[in-house]
Amino acid sequence: MNYTESLTRYTANFIDELARNGMTDVVISPGSRSTPLALVFREHPSIKEWIVIDERSAAFFALGLAKKSNRPVALVCTSGTAAANYYPAVVEAFYSRVPLLVLTADRPHELRQVGAPQAIEQIKMYGDYVKWFHEMATPEGTPPMLRYARQKAAQAFAFTEQGNKGPVQVNFPFREPLTPDFTLPDIWGAEKEKSTARINRMEGMKYLGEEQIQELTALFGSSRKGLLVCGPEMNVNFAERVCELAQVWNLPVLADPLSQLRTGEHDKTHVIEGYDAFLRDSEIRERLQPDYIIRFGAMPVSKAYLFYVKEHSHIPQFVVEENEGFRDPTGNDTAYIYADPRQLCSQLIEKAPDKLSTAAWLDEWLHYNQIAKNHLLSGEETQVTEGEAARGIAAVIPDQTTLYVGNSMAVRDVDSFFMVSSKAVSILCNRGANGIDGVISSAVGAAAAGQRVTLLIGDLSFFHDMNGLLAAKQYQLPITIVLVNNNGGGIFSFLPQANDKKHFEALFGTPVDLPFEKAGALYGAAYQVVSTERALKEQLEQSYQQSGLSIIEVKTDRDENAVWHREKWNRVMAEIKEGWQ
Question: Which residue ranges does the record assign to the Menaquinone biosynthesis protein MenD middle domain (predicted)?
Answer without folding.
Answer: 222-405
